[in-house]
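JOB MANIFEST
job_type = single_chain_structure
chain_count = 1
residues = 175
[input]
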Amino acid sequence: MTRTPQDPDCYFCRVAAGLTDPFIFENRSFLGIFDTHPVNPGHALIIPRRHVVSLFELNETEQSDYFDAIHGVRRVIETTDMNDLYRNMLNRDYLRDRPKGHIETVLKLPFLGKRPDAYTVGNNDGRAAGRSIDHLHVIVLPRYAGDVEDPRGGIRNIIPDRAKYHGPAPAKVGG
């Protein structure tokens, strides 16, 4: 389902129009792609078809399609051969002139061929939150036991000095 970009200067409008990264998921309001600067194997983005900047600007239809998109992208992540994905990504013609360090790093991770142990799902809603492209994109980041030394606090670690809190110790994953 290809559509004309609403903002020709917006990278994610070009993605939504089918002009760049291949879709891994589609519904009537969103599409999913694998991030070409992955943090972990399977790192994906969910992008609204309509040019919308904030999660809080989604209309009722988009809101109802939001969780379908998250579940759909998760299914694709869990059924994709990540080694094959990233080796092919290195050879994509349109990525020829872009840095590939993130892809090369992911290819060396010891958990590359494993199923994710957990997920971090979210978005940087506003420049002060770290958003770099002014088009909503929801991050679906597979997490693996051992991908960080201490995952406790999760997203709270964005502000490290205020991330720690007293609570029950996390359950040991993967032993």
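[summary]
The chain has one domain: 11-162.
The first strand starts at residue 25 and ends at 26.
exit_status = 0
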